[in-house]
Design a protein that fits this description.
Blueprint (H helix, E strand, L loop, with lengths): L2 E3 L26 E3 L1 H9 L1 H9 L8 H16 L9 H18 L15 H18 L9 E10 L3 E12 L5 E7 L6 H22 L5 E6 L4 E6 L2 H24 L38 H6 L10
Parallel strand pairs: 2-4, 5-6
Antiparallel strand pairs: 1-7, 3-4, 4-5, 6-7
The protein binds iron/sulfur cluster (SF4).
Length: 313
């Protein structure tokens, strides 16, 4: 059974216990990999999965996605500071330097703010700082020492499938209890996206359980815009069922790929889909199916940020 609590703030501000992740030697039987984002794409809409993972159609990032990337970068860097210096002022001071770094690494991001464009960069940076205020409303980083930040975790399930994704943060209590923390930078409404966020968290819980033998005690979503915390408590029974779901999803992806049959599944999420022009549900035509299906790209798959809350890692 999976318990769910929202909003709540159970104290788990543990003293630091750092655990490392052992390097994994992949069994020779592994022949595919899956990230929570791509699995959730297929679950949401098989055609969306095809557009993103097989056709690899370009998607121009939205302002919300870029703001999310910036806020995640600031929160990651914040924990580089000594605990006493992890204040709202310090976080605010990190916004501009982290933005400069992101634009240097991904110059295309600057295109969102070109002269005459819809977004003013100063206003954008202020809105990122405002989201960080939401973070400080729900957590005190001076009392936390994360074990891991932005770390890639992976596990092999069913002997053949590598599942992996990037955790925003992992906290480890002195008794070894794990808390997975995921920052969400979007705002309400989020009912339509809650199941996708939960799917992603269970994915991480499964990986941690399979690699470390510990079921995470808490899976936590921090909604920064609403200054709200949602906690989930998984158990082993739930994760066994979830593992079967992931493997079944992967088999369905394989069958769809072999048959070149990815059908659209319209839903409220279509409002945030970049590919309506290619979607038959919107009068579009998909591009010809590629002769060569590209191999998964973990960094591409796992680093994308959501356009709306709970839609990605
Ligand atoms: S517009 Fe909707 S139905 Fe079409 S590909 Fe996108 S998510 Fe799927």
């Amino acid at each position: 059974m999976l318990s769910y609590r929202c909003p709540s703030l159970p104290g788990m501000t543990a003293d630091p216990v750092i655990i490392g992740q052992a390097p994994t030697q992949l069994p020779a039987t592994v022949r595919a990999s899956l990230s929570p984002s791509r699995a959730a794409d297929f679950k949401t809409c098989p055609l969306l999965y095809r557009f993103r993972s097989i056709d690899r159609l370009p998607e121009r990032p939205t302002v919300e996605q870029v703001r999310g990337t910036l806020v995640h970068a600031v929160l990651e860097r914040l924990f580089d500071l000594p605990p006493a210096e992890r204040t709202p002022t310090s976080a605010g001071d990190l916004v501009a330097p982290q933005w400069d770094r992101l634009v240097t690494e991904q110059p295309e991001l600057a295109g969102l703010f070109e002269a005459g464009g819809p977004v003013d960069v100063a206003e954008f940076l202020r809105s990122a700082a405002a989201l960080l205020e939401g973070y400080f409303a729900v957590e005190d980083p001076r009392r936390l020492e994360p074990a891991e930040r932005e770390s890639l975790i992976s596990a092999v399930v069913d002997d053949e499938l590598l599942i992996r994704g990037y955790l925003d943060r992992l906290d480890v209590a002195p008794d070894g209890a794990l808390r997975v923390v995921d920052y969400k930078t979007g705002g309400a409404p989020r009912e339509a996206f809650e199941s996708r966020a939960l799917f992603q968290l269970k994915f991480y819980a499964l990986v941690l359980w399979r690699t470390r033998g510990v079921v995470p005690r808490v899976l936590r979503l921090l909604y920064l815009r609403d200054a709200e915390v949602c906690d989930y408590t998984p158990d082993a029974e739930e994760l066994v069922r979830f593992e079967r779901t992931v493997v079944a999803l992967w088999r369905a992806i394989e069958q769809a790929t072999a048959a070149r049959d990815f059908r659209p599944r319209p839903s409220r999420l279509c409002d945030w889909c970049s590919h309506q022009a290619h979607c038959p549900s919107y009068g579009g035509t998909p591009p010809p199916f590629p002769e060569q299906v590209p191999a998964p790209d973990p960094s591409r798959d796992a680093r994308s940020r959501p356009a709306r809350p709970g839609t990605d890692e």
